[in-house]
Prior knowledge:
- Helix content is 35%, strand content 15%.
- It contains 22 helices and 24 strands.
- Helix 20 (633-666) runs antiparallel to helix 21.
Amino acid sequence: MKRLKDLVGASIPLMLGVAFLSAASQTASARCQFNAPGGQVKRVVHIVFDNVHLRRDNPDVPSDLEQMPNLLNFIQNNGTISGNHHTPLISHTATDILTAQTGVYGDRMGIPVSNSYGFFKPDGSVGFNSSFLYWTALSGDGKPQMLNEFGKTAPAPWVPFTRAGCDVGGFSVANIEFESVPADVNTVFGASSPEGIEANNAALRDKANADFLGIAVHCAQNSPLCNNSHGKADLLTDEPGGYVGYKALFGNIHVQPVISPSGPVKDLDGNVIQTAAGNPGFPNTFNPTAAQSLGYAATMLEAGVQVVYLYVADAHDNRSGSGTFGPGEAGYVAQLKQYDTAFGKFFARLSADAITKDNTLFVVVPDENDHFAGGTPSPTHCDGIRVPCNYAAGQKGEINASLNRLLITQRANSTVFSVHSDDAPTVYINGNPAPTDTVTRTIEHDLDALVATNPMTGNTDKLSKLLADQAEMKLLHMVTSNPARTPTLTMFGDENYFFANANGGACVNQSDCIFVGPNFAWNHGDFQRDITRTWFAMVGPGVQRLGRHDAVFSDHTDVRPTMLALLGLKDSYVHDGRVLSEWIARTALPSGIRQGQENFVELAEVYKQLNAPLGELGRASLVYANRSVTSVDVAYARYLSKISDITNRRNSLARDIKTVLDGAAFGNRPVDERSEDGLGHRARALIDQVKDLIEHDDRDHDEHRAEH
């Protein structure tokens, strides 16, 4: 979730006439050319959810989507939805959204850790940077925020659309519009511009947030939407093939006069979208309701924006007060009802505009699937619909754990380190010691030994479930091209705990270090299946009507290539994901896949198990890494040699396979049986080798037990 604690935290509008808006819409629509088979797709609506669940968190309480039948029925009756879809690691809002937007893992787009990430400074101290900044911003480490494998700014996700003559709108979706004021305003406009002067005036901060945050339109060349005084050069200096002559509208102050010249943009209930202080524009908190996000998106679509990305915030947090909700609580049910009503109004409004499943591709994907950290509600078998659920005091909320104080208390370890606070905290030891240094090895063993008495259950919990060192993080696609961003290690923790550092020394009482935090009860970032196994859906021309379809393993990297294949567009790079051809009608398949679909599918299936962090190889390697990291130094040294060889072989093989899959999807080169057999056999052999390391080779574990 986009928690406030995770975030960093004046032009005169040109009033355009309704006649201009109508002409702009018609002209823009005529220029946008998708190359989808049959030419049926005219628009794209890409919906991102924060922590909205397909499966039930409590077997007696209908799931989030079950309580949103206007959306769920639209998907199941007209398209395909899978509950066998996965996040990257670590799973968290920024990383998940950016992975789906780009089709690559964090090691190729710079943000494998979120919603903020640490970096080592030249003096060995640790700085932190928000994961939410505009696409072309520089990070605090001096490198591009969106850092690709070549040390450049990663290709922007709107480029294939704008090059095809289509305009791309964004509302609250990570990093394709401004995320931080004044930082992003200064990046694009400059501090001395009228926009910069407003944004840097602390007295005008609420208005600046409303004017500049969270809203943008990236325009095709010569688009009438940007061919006015509100258009600003859309600069992407690192874009492969160049990107010259394109403009964008940044912020509500420049978007609203173009898409809604008659006045402020309204939500689906007719209310002006504005901040709590009453400034029209972005509602300031990156926590928009469904009615707000869908209302702004509908206005963009009606103005002729053909591709719209929008984000809908978590329905579990109390939007009208403090705290959070557990499954089945009255407030939780009421908020999901509001979301359901909003989707009903959204689809009805689009239908009245002739924007339907027959001419529009709908893509719906959440970020992570947060784990509910709470006890059993009462009364027994409450369902939330007929019988509201209630949670006793102290039985709802993530369990906060002060990691540094626990190490001092239980292990007398006062090593100075920083963490990215999370259920799976990344640890940065001051001085950036090597993986084999004594200080690193000691803290790994001490983290592995930490325990706590669970304040809800009274049970003794082991806090660390799996430890990943730098070598394992590299295999999991968590190491970028800037070594300064690489954490010392990641501790994948007990899914009921949220880990952070705190001031103070040893804890006199456990409650000094361990306590229930009532404001949040939904944990993310970890490796457990209830967090990392989420869902993904598509509806529109070319998408098969399979309804609920869990037969195919997929993850967030597959969203982008599948969408582009349906649109007949391509990126300038090879994705880490693959086209989910099983979802696509045969007549809509790219010819390179259609001519050898069986070979494509067989190779793609084993590729995902090879390369996805939550595929068979990734999951097995994490268990192997944890056992080795927590073992003796001799065993750890053997592991380092093995894991390096495995990662290099995996990377080389994955590169060969995804090149073949990309050639079929976007280069009209079918996968032949020889490639499928050869590459697929090698992939399966490597997967089995890693699984064998944890199933049959217990030597390292036995040595560790003998020494301790």
